[in-house]
Amino acid sequence: DAKTTQPPSMDCAEGRAANLPCNHSTISGNEYVYWYRQIHSQGPQYIIHGLKNNETNEMASLIITEDRKSSTLILPHATLRDTAVYYCIDKLIFGTGTRLQVFP
Amino acid sequence: SAVISQKPSRDICQRGTSLTIQCQVDSQVTMMFWYRQQPGQSLTLIATANQGSEATYESGFVIDKFPISRPNLTFSTLTVSNMSPEDSSIYLCSARGGLRSTEQFFGPGTRLTVL
User: Fold this and answer.
1) Distances from the Cα of B43 to the Cαs of B39, B57, B92, in angstroms?
2) Terminal-residue alpha carbon distance, chain B
3) Is B43 touching A (CB cutoff 8 A)?
4) Nearest CB to B109; choose among A32, A43, A46
5) Is residue B110 a contact partner of residue B22, using CB atoms and an 8 Å limit?
6) Predicted confidence band of residue A53 (pLDDT cuts 50, 70, 90)
7) DSSP character for A30?
8) B5-40 pLDDT, tens per residue?
9) CA nearest B66: which of B75, B74, B56?
């Protein structure tokens, strides 16, 4: 069964980079890794996704290991508004997520 | 990005009744999904809504309890049947496979309370 593993919580100072890890050792060769965040039980907000190569967009960067068993979401300059629960998903399955707290 | 809307946004229902939740995407998508999020927990996949055929349900979810329709490439419904208080949850619609075909987006959710 698909399963992702993330640390339950992380802190980050405002303006610093937030690096959020995820293990997805069950991922298959043609499955993308998706990252979302959720604030106050709103619908999950799409952040980024990738297959094999590292990806970057206006929100974040995604670093995927060569064996594809783990990835890291990077928020390069965290702000207070980035405080949220961050999820990586594999095969449509959500893990328990990481609660990121950005502090001043 | 695709914009997904859901109706109703919230409802309070009596035990034993049924509620149908509608999901509308502003563009055609290949895949639509339904999730449930119980208070304080992560999201759980209920089923994949297949256009023109029966939905594909995840373990623990059955068609009699959660019938799903998907009549076209932009619309789906989820019915929560014979509700009990344990069905109180947020129900979320998701879609993948639009113009930027591998992106997947979520609707705002329907907050259901069963008394």
Assistant:
1) 10, 15, 9
2) 36
3) yes
4) A43
5) no
6) confident
7) T
8) 999 999 999 999 999 999 999 999 989 999 999 988
9) B56
Report the gap between the CA of A92 and the closest CA in chain B (Å).
Answer: 7
Query: Are the C-beta atoms of B74 and B26 separated by less than 8 Å?
Result: yes
- Angle at alpha carbon of residue B45, lines to B39 and B47, rounded to 5°: 130
Rounded (10°) CA dihedral B21, B58, B25, B54? -80
**What is the rounded average pLDDT of the residues B42-48?**
95
| Gap between the terminal Cα atoms of chain A | 40
Report residue A82: phi and psi, to 5°.
-85, -5
Q: How does DSSP assign B17-41, residue by residue?
A: --EEEEEEESS--SEEEEEEE-TTS
Q: Does B106 touch chain A (CB under 8 A)?
A: yes
Task: List the beta bridge partners of residue A94.
Answer: A89
Residue B104 near chain A (CB below 8 Å): yes
> CA A15 to CA A80: how far, in whole Å?
9
